[in-house]
Structures are given as structure tokens and as C-alpha cells.
Amino acid sequence: MDRIRIVGGAELNGAIPISGAKNAALPLMIASLLTDETLQLHNVPRLADVAQLLRILGNHGVDHGVAGKRPGQTAVTGQSVRLRARHIIDTTAPYDLVSKMRASFWVIAPLLARMGEARVSLPGGCAIGTRPVDLLLMALERLGATIDIEGGYAIARAPKGLKGNDIVFPKVTVGGTHTALMAAVLADGTTVIENAAREPEVADLALCLNTMGARITGAGTSRIVVDGVARLHGAEHNVLPDRIETGTYAMAVAMTGGDVMLEGARPDLLQDALDTLVQVGAEISSTNEGIRVRRNGHGISAVDVTTEPFPGFPTDLQAQFMALMTKAKGTSRIRETIFENRFMHVQELARLGARIRLDGDLAYVDGVERLTGAPVMATDLRASVSLVIAALAAEGETTVNRVYHLDRGFEALELKLGQCGANIERISHS
Ligand SMILES: CC(=O)N[C@H]1[C@@H](OP(=O)(O)OP(=O)(O)OC[C@H]2O[C@@H](n3ccc(=O)[nH]c3=O)[C@H](O)[C@@H]2O)O[C@H](CO)[C@@H](O)[C@@H]1O
Ligand SMILES: C=C(OP(=O)(O)O)C(=O)O
Description:
Elements: E1 3-7, E2 12-17, H1 22-30, E3 38-44, H2 48-60, E4 63-66, E5 79-84, E6 92-93, H3 95-98, H4 108-115, E7 117-121, H5 134-142, E8 146-150, E9 153-157, E10 166-168, H6 174-184, E11 190-194, H7 200-211, E12 215-217, E13 223-227, E14 235-238, H8 243-256, E15 258-263, H9 271-280, E16 283-286, E17 290-295, E18 305-306, H10 318-325, E19 331-335, H11 345-351, E20 355-359, E21 362-366, E22 375-377, H12 381-392, E23 397-401, H13 404-409, H14 413-418, E24 423-427
Parallel strand pairs: 2-15, 3-14, 6-7, 10-11, 18-19, 22-23
Antiparallel strand pairs: 1-23, 1-24, 3-5, 4-5, 7-9, 8-9, 11-13, 12-13, 15-17, 16-17, 19-21, 20-21
Helix pairs in contact: 1-2, 1-7, 4-6, 5-6, 6-7, 8-9, 8-10, 8-12, 10-12
Residues 23, 132-136, 171-176, 197, 199, 309, 314-316, 338 line the site of uridine-diphosphate-N-acetylglucosamine.
Domain Enolpyruvate transferase: 8-416
Pathway: Cell wall biogenesis; peptidoglycan biosynthesis
Keywords: Cell cycle, Cell division, Cell shape, Cell wall biogenesis/degradation, Cytoplasm, Peptidoglycan synthesis, Pyruvate, Transferase
């Protein structure tokens, strides 16, 4: 298993190209199941999750190919992926595939919409908490599907097709909104999704679906209206930049000090997190090139945050922000409201000398003068990168084990940080 070795203490200076968003690329790839024509996606990050989803889609009959680089794509980021689901050969997504990646459960919606049936293994929980799908199934039922749970599988059937209807989500769910959208686009009549997730990745999916011939308005707001169409066609679409990767590197610069241009990053995708970083003591400016993050000289201050659905502070940046707060002046209170167990990084940060107390969904982080390197273990994707951020500012050497978590969501991490001056290397073990 690969490990990452970091010797802390170096400032970050230079430029980091921001990759396409994992959490947009995955539902966009799944949308290829909705048409028998080709969907070509550009700016798809090279990640383990993308490779795994290609395997899952292949099982349903999707042909794929990497279609070559576009001008402007660098060696470090992105690939263009061509997907064609000319024939769906299997409407079952088995346990051994779905259990490896939660987002693959979303295939249930396009398979049902196009084929009238889908049999998809329930995803189960993961390190950050339970990952329920009751609201995703509720959305499909509202569109006329029958749902049976048998042998660990959700079996959705709509032999006469789906019918547009109102779907009111009792809480904001990104997966639920993706599911509702992908089912409603081919339903007969109009669907109104109330309390829809406003995450940019939902709007990106809707934009792509509209390019494929769907009729969706209001994506990016909490009320989305979908007028169903009989069929969708092929399209070409650019995946939007990864706001979580952007925020992660912004926090790394705030942690180490320095001056880095996050190329291609869009401030509108993470305004709340950027405002928080300004309160912490970083300087943030937006240019045509991207977002410039600087911190020179003075230290960082403790700031409280609460994770919330978009446009609030994202749960996917909570671990990274906690790493930053370990060296802030004062005590920061960090409340996690989306996942009940997303504090697995706390005990590993403690190994580097962080002082953090947990009380239910609240973490109290008392800033310390110095962190010191140690061997640490990644427990999930964002937790693992929080350890990298802490290690960059720790004295001495840190080894981050279980790097496969990082490879799920951070493209060329050691290259991107290394070219800005970080002392970081991957130690490969075959
Ligand atoms: C709103 C939110 O921040 N969602 C995050 C969530 O999306 P993801 O799509 O995984 O999760 P949801 O947005 O669906 O879940 C939001 C909340 O709703 C609950 N829920 C969800 C579905 C369901 O059927 N029943 C139910 O009760 C969840 O337990 C959770 O507390 O994790 C992703 C990966 O970390 C993040 O990128 C998303 O930003
Ligand atoms: C936890 C994440 O991914 P997933 O929902 O696929 O587990 C994430 O993107 O931070």
C-alpha cells in the first residue's frame, strides 16, 4: 500500500491547477445511462472513484474511452471521457461494486427511467456515518415506481414508465436531488422538486442534462421544475472545477503561509469557506486566472464554523478546516451537522500534537504553537487530506498511511503540492 511522506515547515508558493470536481463528474458519468448516444465529458479528474465508476457502468453495458486532451488541459489535471450506453445489458448493480463506492447507488434512477426496472444493492454505511437512501427511494416512488427491498437490494419497477409529480424533500439531500433529476427527465409530465439541494454539482448535472435535451429550470435553487421528454441525446460537457479541492489547497496555504494561485478555481463555488479563511487571516483575491491565496508574516486566528448544505460551509471541508485550526490563536468550535461520525481525523491529528475535545457534534480545537510529525493513518477521503495539511506545518516527518483514501478524491496531490515547494513524496509499494 502506498504512503505519503511529508517533512513539514516549507511555505507554499506558486500555482496549483484545480481539477474537475469528483462530486460532479460521478453523477455526470451516471447520466450517460439515460441515452443511447455518446456523452463526452471534459475535465474529468483522474481519480480512483472515476475508474471504479467506469467499471460499474461497464457492467451495465456502457462503452467508454479516454478521448484525448483538450487544449488547456495540463499533464497534471483532467481527461476527456467518452461514454456510450447504446444498449443496457444489465439492470442490476451488485453488492461487490456498489459497496466500493456510495455514489454508484445513483444508477438506480437512469436505469429505472430508461429500462423500467433497476436492482441496485443498498450502499450501507461508511466511515463518516450512515448513508441512508430512504429519501432517494421516496423520490422514485413519487414518480410512480414501486420499490421492494429484498436480499439487500432495492428493486425499483415502473413497467409503464415514470410519471411527473411533486417531490418535497424533508431535508436537503444531494444524492436525493441527483436521483430525482435523473428519474424526472424521462418521466411523462412535469416534476417539481421542493427543498432541492442547491449544490453547484446539482446545477452542473442539470446543465449537462439540458444539453442532452432535458427541460430543467431552477437547478441551483431550492425549487427545480422538470418537464419530462421522451428521449435524450448525446452531448459534450465540461465538468466544473472542484470546490473542495480548491478549499483544501486554500487551507493548506493558510496553514503554511505563502502565496499560491489556484488556477481555474471559481470563488462563487465556495464563498462561505473563502470568507471564513479571510476571518482566519488569509488574503484572498479573485482574478481571471483563478483564486489567489496569501498569508505572510502574521499568524492565524481561531474561527467557529458549522457545516451546512450549500451555500453554507461544506462538510467536505470540515476536516481540512479543523487541521488549520490546530495552529490558530485561540479556540475554534467546529460543528458537524451533516454526518454523525465525521470526526475520525481527530485522534490522528492528536498524534501530531493537536488539542481537540469532542462533545457530540461539536469539536473544540485549542490552537497550539507547534505540531510535530508522526506516522498517521487516513480513515476517509477528507480526513486523510486534513492530515496532509497538518503535516505540512508540523516539525519533522509525517507518514500518511492508507493513501488509497486520498486517491479517491485528490488528483496528483503530491505533484501539485510538491511544485509549490512542499517537501512531499509518495512511497509506492506494489
Ligand atoms: C447536504 C450535504 O452536505 N450533502 C453532502 C453529502 O451528500 P450525499 O449525497 O452523500 O448525502 P445527502 O446530501 O443525501 O445527505 C444529507 C443528509 O441527509 C440525510 N439523508 C440523505 C439521504 C436519505 O435518503 N436520507 C437521509 O436521511 C443524510 O444522512 C445526511 O444527513 O455528502 C457528500 C460527500 O461528503 C457531500 O459532497 C455533500 O455536500
Ligand atoms: C465522502 C465523500 O465521498 P462519498 O460520498 O463518495 O463517500 C466526499 O466526497 O467527501
